[in-house]
Amino acid sequence: MSDQKYSTIHYHNYLEIDKLLSIQNTRSAALGDAAHDETLFIIMHQVYELWFKQIMTELDSVCILFREEQVNEDNMNTVLLRLKRISTIVSLMVEQIHVMETLTPLDFLDFRDYLFPASGFQSMQFRMIESTLGLREEDRMTYHGKSYKIVFNEEQKARLEGIESGGSLFELVERWLERTPFLRFEGFDFLSSYKEAVDRMLHKEQASISGSEYLDERMKAMRLKMLGDSNSYFKHVLSKEEHERMMAEGECRLSYEATIAALLINLYRDKPILNIPFNLLTELMNIDELLTTWRYRHAQMVMRMIGNKIGTGGSSGHDYLAATAEKHKIFKDLHNISSLLIPRSELPDLPEGVERNLGFYFSGKK
Amino acid sequence: MSDQKYSTIHYHNYLEIDKLLSIQNTRSAALGDAAHDETLFIIMHQVYELWFKQIMTELDSVCILFREEQVNEDNMNTVLLRLKRISTIVSLMVEQIHVMETLTPLDFLDFRDYLFPASGFQSMQFRMIESTLGLREEDRMTYHGKSYKIVFNEEQKARLEGIESGGSLFELVERWLERTPFLRFEGFDFLSSYKEAVDRMLHKEQASISGSEYLDERMKAMRLKMLGDSNSYFKHVLSKEEHERMMAEGECRLSYEATIAALLINLYRDKPILNIPFNLLTELMNIDELLTTWRYRHAQMVMRMIGNKIGTGGSSGHDYLAATAEKHKIFKDLHNISSLLIPRSELPDLPEGVERNLGFYFSGKK
Amino acid sequence: MSDQKYSTIHYHNYLEIDKLLSIQNTRSAALGDAAHDETLFIIMHQVYELWFKQIMTELDSVCILFREEQVNEDNMNTVLLRLKRISTIVSLMVEQIHVMETLTPLDFLDFRDYLFPASGFQSMQFRMIESTLGLREEDRMTYHGKSYKIVFNEEQKARLEGIESGGSLFELVERWLERTPFLRFEGFDFLSSYKEAVDRMLHKEQASISGSEYLDERMKAMRLKMLGDSNSYFKHVLSKEEHERMMAEGECRLSYEATIAALLINLYRDKPILNIPFNLLTELMNIDELLTTWRYRHAQMVMRMIGNKIGTGGSSGHDYLAATAEKHKIFKDLHNISSLLIPRSELPDLPEGVERNLGFYFSGKK
Amino acid sequence: MSDQKYSTIHYHNYLEIDKLLSIQNTRSAALGDAAHDETLFIIMHQVYELWFKQIMTELDSVCILFREEQVNEDNMNTVLLRLKRISTIVSLMVEQIHVMETLTPLDFLDFRDYLFPASGFQSMQFRMIESTLGLREEDRMTYHGKSYKIVFNEEQKARLEGIESGGSLFELVERWLERTPFLRFEGFDFLSSYKEAVDRMLHKEQASISGSEYLDERMKAMRLKMLGDSNSYFKHVLSKEEHERMMAEGECRLSYEATIAALLINLYRDKPILNIPFNLLTELMNIDELLTTWRYRHAQMVMRMIGNKIGTGGSSGHDYLAATAEKHKIFKDLHNISSLLIPRSELPDLPEGVERNLGFYFSGKK
Questions:
Q1: Mean pLDDT, residues B45-67 taken together
Q2: CA-based nearest residue to D90, from D285, D334, D302, D339
Q3: pLDDT of residue B73
Q4: At A189, which helix (H) or strand (E)?
Q5: Which positions in this protein are listed as binding heme (chains A, B, C, D) (predicted)?
């Protein structure tokens, strides 16, 4: 019956509109006086949960494409497009807070009492998103000193543990970066070459600043201080031991090899084989930043709704959310690559063989 | 059992998450090869339907507050806040098209064939929104020469007819405007006073332009043409007969009395009793404009998705939608009030008695 | 020469396009190798400065309208519309950060060195906006332990001091709130009436929770804790002494009388005379929140651009900005009013005389 | 004096703030009564002109990179990032219309008379953007039956003519597409292979529809009509003669070879060498669509501001702008590629040699 695909379907049935519109049952109407704004409250959260489902759909597919030993190059742009879709959705989620803010504090009081102890902390899907991206249990804010999983049932807990132990996007990207073949390639040693460039640049700048007739002593001191500050950042990346100390102390998370690879991608992003990897790392930072913004705006909205009062879930609403905004950021180490960049003009030319290998077969074979 | 409100509830149950997340069943998976992007397609439409439900919730409540013979002044700001909520939601709906646009034409082809003949034309709730706002059957684009209702079942048709015959927001606002007591009040005749001001202004300007040493003949002619053009607009409002001819010929819809009242509200919007009415008329225009933008962006998105091909519903996709953008605008007459405004400096002062009546009791009684 | 207004003007001259487009002179081109992206960097900041000028234009006009002993009621909606314009502009400023983010860290390095020690800290207009809104010197982050004014010249310092001592919008709004006549009016004492309602509500709830068959002991304890928490907030407002202690210790800033008035406006916002005041307080919170978001997004963008490196102005870029986000919030006390609200159903009816005085003359005199 | 780059600079001087803030000189203040909102009007337009300059900066640089005989592959991602920057800016320009809409029609009347005959039609930079993208004189709306250039002086006209005759982005992209080597390559003839796939697909579908037990006669007819409609679109691309007839009659503009290349890029977008070209064509459509939206929203705003009155420039304001929205779209032919796509599952596999040539040297040489 291969042509069953020609069976017809109505918009109404396809989208299961009857079921969809039957699940906005307000507690205020069921248990007391119907509060006009409770429908909005339910719908806003249901819309968020639908977007969460979509984000999980994309994340799961991206993880599968990344999980292969050798990521298929024909899939890389698909990965990029799906990550961009996630960004676009999270952008929309940020905008949606404006709808939430049309619910005034006074109107919220008309049904707030019925919601106890329900709370956004209990959104399973949002936790899954964070964990799939790479947030670890130990990176999370605790909940009254206990695990964030305490509000979930056994089956849900097991599901979250499965995700936490199963290879997050962070780990997949880390391994993919570590596999970059161009760190040491055909006689080219990226790290040495970069170190030399950094040293050369720092020395040149130091001499120029010290000898400059355009800077008075205070300004010279300030510039040299900035230079020294940059220098200390460079040192971290120049030393594997220092990097591993930082990892051990939780100051960074991305492995040394992956960090160097991300640096290489950022510096040589114009080479064809690094175009999509560069855009892909950028998109991971976009998602991270947008989720951070969403948490921050969420915290602002809660402050507006209940002031400093305790939330329906029993937490200190605003403060908890505000604290998670930065703390739950996942790809911080990618943001920090900026500290390690040097101007393109300071970079040495690549050997011809390396250059060819960063281009297309069609161009290179000639 | 008055304290049943203290029964506890979990986020998961409150929002009926299980049901909500069980209704994204892709046809591609059921009837052929699962297409990754079909989930997005379903979720995007379900989110729209949730927002439509919320808009209907607000519209219904606003209509009830407006339906009273004498609208309760204590409800006016509530009406305004609910209309603003609708604007905020439609703004978000416009932004959501960016998510839709992450679905590329090629990926859409992976499941497009399964959707026949489902189509957005079959969204009952969107038609309800348009009709509740005031779109009449005769104002609508026809569907292959037939009524837009043809895609609905009998029960749905009946529901739409009920709305169409039951007093739309347009009609309620029209009647509310017609009841404005200040058109003729304590010896003040707004229309005469306005006519005089318009005449005075036009004559003064005509003389100034004609005698100006700053304008050459071509510029004088151009300015006088513009003045004449304005003049002809003023004439419409100065003559009830002309207005009724225009109504009969479908050039405008809002009654003469309501038009004059809307003009008065716009000109004297700074008077306390007219503050909220002015903001409320502005908000109706916002909603109208945002819905127009949504239809327009929707048409653009369809063009991108299927080019000039016929849509799954059998219509000429893009062209139909683009045509409805302006045609389905409802409060055009409010937008046109701008043509009738004259600078505040040209307006005569209000008699003291009228002035007091446009203010607060607290201020006026002294 | 009264008709000089008829002299003609070309778009190009009206907007002084030649001058406007002649002031994007890149340092990289002047002092070294032209960096493509420096033009963007200049234009982005110039656009911000233009918006700052517009915001100052609106703020100054609003302050003038508020400065009168008895604010003219005919100006209140104008104030509201101008505050909304500020919100709209700050919203756009937040969106503009997306343009800034198209400047990649690597491209920024091509001209960053030329900018020393220029920095956004040196924007005079932004400081003026903050001070005019009501940010005091003592509320600000210090700049390397010194006054933020250190980067300005003497004339600029004097101007900022003038603003700081001249009556900010915060102070004008505070005085306007304090003048609200309805706190004690025709035998109605708002504060006593509110206190009684709060007590009644708290007792009723406490009894209900304790006796509820729907709550187990842990849940009862949690709810009672939340109730107690609310209670402690109410206490602050119930005691002028406590409020003054909090003011002295910097925990709040808005005077006791003004706080009570803001509470009254929020609770009785549906009364006509309080409609615009309520919308106006909401708009002040919007502006505050949007500026906070702008600072926060700005901090995120800086993190992305330079990682943890020191900014061109010598500050710790990201951390400084992130810290100002909340710290420079001005109308926190208005956000906190939410903590003091009680459901409308708990409010006592207003005496008829009071009710009439909160309405329109036209309605009340009948 | 190589270290002149260390000369210091203040934010205030770098951005030429004094000049920037000195050019908002209102005509209302100079010639009559100062109108509060005129400053906003000037600033809004100046901000637009600054963005126009930035867009021109990007367009000029992109055209230079594209103008080389063989576009340097190391520049392709830079081109993409600059086109995305343009999209981001135009998105912001669309949002800015909300600021424009805070200027109410009544307030506009306070200074509208002073602006004659200035008009947005006189923005030189906006015309340059349209022409550089590829809008030809003959594609433009005429201005009272005359060339749009009539409002410019001789030097400006010459500049616009230079752009119009100098190779627009449309033409550069067209030539770049025409050079695609993969249309006929190592024994693979894309067009024949595509034609066969289309025929195979159409026949299979026709048979399935005709024989389907799931469709009644009306539905069969409808589906076959849709199929026939698709078929007629395919025919255009299958025949060079037909395409050239369409070009001659102005129904399309992009050359036959370029159209086929764009089709190939869309169908095989997952191959590494086509990743950036695909994203780049998408970005051109984004820019086109966003500019269309901007014109459309602009038209809406004008309708709101002056209703149906004639604009200060003497044109029929809203109608002119609304008509340009679609008419001035430049890359319509790229949007129409969607009509020609077929599902990936219908595409034949590429010969191994071709496949390798669409990949990276590093992967292919093994």
A1: 97
A2: D285
A3: 92
A4: strand A188-189
A5: 298
Domain covering D12-185+240-341 in this structure, CATH number? 1.20.58.480
Domains of chain A, by residue range, sit at 22-184+255-334
Q: Pick from C269, C355, C357, C363: which is nearest to B70 by CA?
A: C363
Q: Which residue of B has its CA nearest to D227?
A: B310
Phi first, then psi: give them for residue A15, nearest 5 degrees: -90, 5
Q: Does domain A22-184+255-334 have CATH number 1.20.58.480?
A: yes
Any chains having at least 3 CB pairs less than 8 A from chain D are A, B, C
Beta bridge partners of D37: none
The class (CATH top level) of C12-186+240-338 is: mainly alpha
Asked whether the CA dihedral C31, C35, C36, C38 is positive or negative, the reply is: negative
SS3 letters for chain D?
A: CHHHHHCCCCHHHHCCHHHHCCCCCCHHHHHCCCCCCHHHHHHHHHHHHHHHHHHHHHHHHHHHHHHCCCCCHHHHHHHHHHHHHHHHHHHHHHHHHHHHCCCCHHHHHCCHHHHCCCCHHHCHHHHHHHHHHCCCHHHCCCECCECHHHHCCHHHHHHHHHHHHCCCHHHHHHHHHHCCHHHEECCEEHHHHHHHHHHHHHHHHHHHHHHCCCCCHHHHHHHHHHHHHHHHHHHHHHCHHHHHHHHHCCCCCCCHHHHHHHHHHHHCCCCHHHHHHHHHHHHHHHHHHHHHHHHHHHHHHHHHHHCCCCCCCCCCHHHHHHHHHHHCCCCHHHHHHHHHCCCHHHCCCCCHHHHHHCCEHHHHCC
- Which structure tokens are listed for D105? 């029609």
Q: What token pair was written down for B50?
A: 């949730």
Q: What is the pLDDT of residue A1?
A: 41
Look up residue D71 and give its two tokens.
């576009």
Annotated binding site of C for substrate: 112, 312
Band of residue B311 on the pLDDT scale cut at 50, 70, 90: low
Of D208, D223, D362, the CB nearest to A273: D362
Provide the pLDDT confidence category of residue C248 given band limits of 50, 70 and 90: very high
Q: Binding residue per annotation — D298?
A: yes
- In this prediction, residue C339 carries a pLDDT of 87
Highest-pLDDT range among A178-192, A215-229, A288-302, B322-336: A288-302
CA distance between the termini of chain B: 51
Task: Pick the closest to residue A354 from A178, A192, A189 (CA basis).
Answer: A189
Q: What is the mean pLDDT of residues A68-87?
A: 93
State the pLDDT confidence band at B315, using cuts at 50, 70 and 90: low
Q: How far, in Å, CA of D355 to CA of D349, rounded?
A: 9
The shortest C-alpha distance from D280 to chain B (Å) reads 14
Mean pLDDT of D59-65: 96
Torsion on CA atoms A222, A228, A233, A235, rounded to nearest 10: 180
In sequence order, the β-bridge partners of residue D188 are D185
The pTM assigned to this predicted structure is 0.96
Exposure on the CB side of residue D353, measured as CA atoms within 13 A? 8
Closest CA to C172 of C56, C60, C276, C287: C60
Rounded to the nearest 10 degrees, the angle between the axes of helix A272-306 and helix D272-306 is 40
Average pLDDT, rounded, for chain D: 91
**Positive/negative CA dihedral, A236, A237, A242, A245:** positive
D162 burial via Cβ count (<10 Å: 0-12, 13-18, 19+): exposed
Collect all residues with Cβ–Cβ distance below 8 Å to C352 and sequence separation of at least 6. none
Of B109, B336, B339, the CB nearest to D343: B109
Structure tokens at B47: 């989110």
Domain B14-180+251-332 has CATH 1.20.120.80: no
What is the average pLDDT across B339-360? 91
* Partner residue opposite B219 with nearest CB, options C3, C8, C278: C8
